[in-house]
Amino acid sequence: MKYLEEFQNPELARRLLDEIRATVTRPWALMEVCGGQTHTIIRHGIDQLLPDEVELIHGPGCPVCVTPLEVIDKALEIAARPDVIFCSFGDMLRVPGSDRDLFQVRSRGGDVRVVYSPLDALKIAQQNPHREVVFFGIGFETTAPPNAMTVHQARKLGIPNFSLLVSHVRVPPAIEAIMTSPSCRVQAFLAAGHVCSVMGMGEYPELADRFQVPIVVTGFEPLDILEGVRRTVRQLERGEHTVDNAYPRAVRSEGNPAAQAMLADVFEVTDRAWRGIGTIPASGWRLSERYRDYDAEYRFSVDGITTREPAACRSGEVLQGLIKPHECEAFGTACTPRSPLGATMVSSEGACAAYYLYRRLGTTPTPQEASPVA
Amino acid sequence: MCLAVPGKVLDIEERDGTRMATVDFGGVVKEVCLEYVPDLKVGEYAIVHVGFALQRLDEESARHTLALFEELGLLQEEFGDPWEAAAASQGWDGAGGTPPAALNDGERETSR
Ligand code: SF4
């Protein structure tokens, strides 16, 4: 595929690695924010190819992993209702709730459907006017504009039986939370490229300045990651801390103004609990007053939820970069992609799943598990 | 699910007042909403996520980045240590663990 393969070229990767090796003189800890980048890094062994001085700490940027348990439990309640068709992206199916997951809801008769796009869910609502169609709207700034547009369309086309269960999250408040945590070791960030395709780079100079950290907007292919690391290490060695764009083919500094305008209309900023991490102020979006009618939390009152996390799961520490997945006792034994204890073992972008699939740490995935999950 | 990938616009039409396109992802063809990048043209590439084009992929900038990578290390090869250069042309310097051929795992999913 054009513009994917070119950015995986091993010869160019070697040059980038040489350049990084020639620049680095002492240890640095960089955090890649996005789970998609963690996936590329572990899959291609980039962390092992880099010089020992460069440590990559995996960040909390997997939306499937950080969706709060309470919201998952609400989704499961709603999905089990006989009048509901519950639509979701595929990687939410096996995310463990307190006592079951969406997959089990479906096997017990719930109408749970996997869609590629939120627009597919809207189409299902049009085709089933006598059923309630709920779409599970999770994701970062990348996924929020598609979901916002879908709700906007639902209102414009007058489709009353469609609603959104929203748990969107925003990257900049998460960076702030990481930097103000007492256990923070992070000295620079590889910022998530596609988040910036939408939001641009305007939110980052203040953070780079306040915390004295380089923030380098980085893409997702192996060469993109290496280029992000190269530019970051160069800044660190020079004692600089600016916002830089290592992914210019997909990121303009102003982002996508049309998408930003739609976000501002459909959503409003709210505090949000991140699974395993806790509440981060102003770190999420919910539907704005104007779109309340389309909010599944208001349409279906789901009360009396008591959440329960398995005690063994240390995904909160994994998500904050405090431990690596294989340092968790349950990794690969009590917890595997087939029977996950935590969400980080489920999603294709979760750090535990990436380590399990690509870093054969004494465990061998079955062929089904090794096959890519879209 | 956060993954967004470049795809090439094959054709464009209005549907229910919405600008939609057929987009080719290396053989997999999908319907994509163009409302956020309305001036995208047939033949251009866009970064697409869950059925929405989010940003035009700038081909010139992609080529520029690759050209920059090509230039890296050229100066060292020309003026640097000939032994190092010879080792480099063997593909790897032997000091860094797995050779970069690890990047060629050849099993990328098309849906990424
Ligand atoms: S390996 Fe499993 S139990 Fe351990 S932190 Fe990861 S998801 Fe949780």
TrEMBL record, chain A:
InterPro entries: Hyd_form_HypD, HypD_1, HypD_2_sf. The keyword Iron applies. GO terms for molecular function: 4 iron, 4 sulfur cluster binding; carbon monoxide binding; iron ion binding. The keyword Iron applies. Pfam families: HypD. Keywords: Iron, Metal-binding. GO terms for biological process: protein maturation. NCBIfam families: hypD. Belongs to the HypD family. This is Hydrogenase formation protein HypD.
TrEMBL record, chain B:
Transmembrane segments: none annotated. InterPro entries: Hydgase_assmbl_chp_CS, Hydrogenase_HupF/HypC. SUPFAM superfamilies: HupF/HypC-like. Pfam families: HupF_HypC. GO terms for molecular function: carbon dioxide binding; iron ion binding. Residues 86-112 are annotated as: Disordered. Coiled coil: none annotated. GO terms for biological process: protein maturation. PANTHER family: HYDROGENASE MATURATION FACTOR HYBG. Belongs to the HupF/HypC family. This is Hydrogenase assembly protein HypC. It comes from Streptomyces nigrescens. The gene is hypC.
